[in-house]
């Protein structure tokens, strides 16, 4: 039930710090070590390549998850949109592991790939919020998101839960492989949960940004580099699905290869700047669009912030910034939809789980 909340989406955004703390609890043993199904650990150790299969928001989580696994555990990862993969299967490595990411566990596009990989006896792991679901039952192993029921059509807490479970899985694999990491996932996730809480207390600022940038906007661009690019894709999806504003996420460096033609006087461009190694270049991209009339909104991370930034995020470990930077984007989408009188929890043309291919 949504209790005192006007919408499930807002309630579910607010639940994110608690979900992260719940995941820390569920995936940690009494010696503060990662607690994970040993079969999952073995499957990760046995594979030479991970194939992540997902749709929509879960696909966006997969893109970030690839970075976790490659950077922490040194395993090559491909991320595929399920609906494309099922008829255009790439060459598969000798020892693949298929990871299905699905909040509902019922998405037909993802299931169709699972049926195919099962037919080939490829090992499979489903990461889902619904352990009894089809994708969970039909895969070899399951990791539970522990996010609690997600009712709003626009996915919020499932995304951050997916990222948390993916980083724990990546660190567990790294440890099992004997890779020395200077990174304690539970400590870093606890810092993330606190940062999320602080952001959820700043709703008025997000509402102001939504009012200022998106009340009359026809379209909106999200730009970022590296992990910020993936979060931009998710921010754009949130905005378009509930506010019906045409929104697209772009890699900061890619805009000038064509799409910059769409920038007009006043076009909102939301830029994320949370990654030290690309801070200089993303700010260059902001200047490029501003010079063509765009109205930039810069969301940066403390430590990388510059004068004039629209909003500064509390600092978290650089790998985990997507868990935090997505929250203002969720809230901006929420308030934009609200200001435009849209049905936030049940946007037009959409269903919570897509059970047709
Ligand atoms: C976006 C959204 C959808 C789902 C997608 C996959 O807010 O809700 O893009 O993420 O349909 O759903 P699951 O994760 O249930 O497979």
Automatic annotation (TrEMBL):
<feature type="domain" description="SIS">
    <location>
        <begin position="209"/>
        <end position="347"/>
    </location>
</feature>
<dbReference type="GO" id="GO:0004360">
    <property type="term" value="F:glutamine-fructose-6-phosphate transaminase (isomerizing) activity"/>
</dbReference>
<dbReference type="GO" id="GO:0005829">
    <property type="term" value="C:cytosol"/>
</dbReference>
<dbReference type="GO" id="GO:0006487">
    <property type="term" value="P:protein N-linked glycosylation"/>
</dbReference>
<keyword id="KW-0808">Transferase</keyword>
<feature type="active site" description="For Fru-6P isomerization activity">
    <location>
        <position position="352"/>
    </location>
</feature>
<comment type="function">
    <text>Catalyzes the first step in hexosamine metabolism, converting fructose-6P into glucosamine-6P using glutamine as a nitrogen source.</text>
</comment>
<keyword id="KW-0315">Glutamine amidotransferase</keyword>
<feature type="domain" description="SIS">
    <location>
        <begin position="40"/>
        <end position="179"/>
    </location>
</feature>
<keyword id="KW-0963">Cytoplasm</keyword>
<dbReference type="GO" id="GO:0097367">
    <property type="term" value="F:carbohydrate derivative binding"/>
</dbReference>
<dbReference type="GO" id="GO:0006047">
    <property type="term" value="P:UDP-N-acetylglucosamine metabolic process"/>
</dbReference>
<dbReference type="GO" id="GO:0005975">
    <property type="term" value="P:carbohydrate metabolic process"/>
</dbReference>
<protein>
    <recommendedName>
        <fullName>Glutamine--fructose-6-phosphate aminotransferase [isomerizing]</fullName>
        <ecNumber>2.6.1.16</ecNumber>
    </recommendedName>
</protein>
<keyword id="KW-0032">Aminotransferase</keyword>
<dbReference type="GO" id="GO:0006002">
    <property type="term" value="P:fructose 6-phosphate metabolic process"/>
</dbReference>
<keyword id="KW-0677">Repeat</keyword>
<comment type="subunit">
    <text>Homodimer.</text>
</comment>
């Amino acid at each position: 039930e949504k209790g005192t909340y006007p919408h499930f989406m807002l309630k579910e955004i607010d639940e994110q710090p608690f979900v992260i703390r719940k995941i820390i609890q569920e995936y940690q043993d009494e010696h503060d070590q990662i607690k994970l199904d040993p079969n999952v650990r073995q499957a990760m150790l046995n594979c030479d390549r991970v194939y992540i299969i997902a749709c929509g928001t879960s696909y966006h989580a997969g893109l970030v998850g690839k970075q976790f696994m490659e950077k922490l555990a040194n395993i090559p990862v491909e991320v595929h949109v399920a609906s494309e993969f099922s008829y255009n299967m790439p060459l598969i490595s000798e020892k693949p592991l298929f990871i299905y990411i699905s909040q509902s566990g019922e998405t037909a596009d993802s299931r169709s790939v699972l049926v195919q990989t099962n037919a080939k006896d490829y090992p499979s792991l489903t990461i889902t919020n619904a352990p009894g679901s089809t994708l969970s039952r039909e895969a070899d192993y399951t990791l539970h998101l522990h996010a609690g029921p997600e009712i709003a059509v626009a996915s919020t807490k499932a995304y951050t839960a997916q990222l948390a479970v993916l980083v724990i899985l990546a660190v567990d694999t790294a440890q099992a492989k004997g890779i020395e990491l200077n990174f304690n996932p539970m400590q870093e996730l606890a810092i993330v949960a606190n940062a999320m809480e602080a952001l959820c207390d700043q709703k008025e600022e997000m509402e102001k940004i939504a009012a200022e940038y998106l009340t009359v906007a026809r379209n909106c661009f999200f730009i970022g580099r590296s992990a910020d690019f993936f979060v931009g894709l998710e921010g754009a999806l949130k905005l378009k699905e509930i506010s019906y504003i045409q929104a697209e996420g772009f890699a900061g460096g890619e805009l000038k290869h064509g799409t910059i033609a769409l920038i007009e006087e006043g076009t909102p461009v939301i830029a994320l700047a949370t990654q030290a190694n690309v801070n200089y270049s993303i700010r260059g991209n902001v200047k490029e669009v501003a010079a063509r009339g765009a109205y930039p909104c810069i969301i940066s991370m403390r430590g990388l912030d510059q004068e004039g930034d629209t909003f500064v995020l509390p600092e978290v470990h650089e790998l985990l910034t997507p868990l935090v930077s997505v929250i203002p984007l969720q809230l901006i989408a929420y308030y934009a939809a609200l200001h435009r009188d849209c049905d936030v929890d049940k946007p037009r043309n959409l269903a919570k789980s897509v059970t047709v291919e």
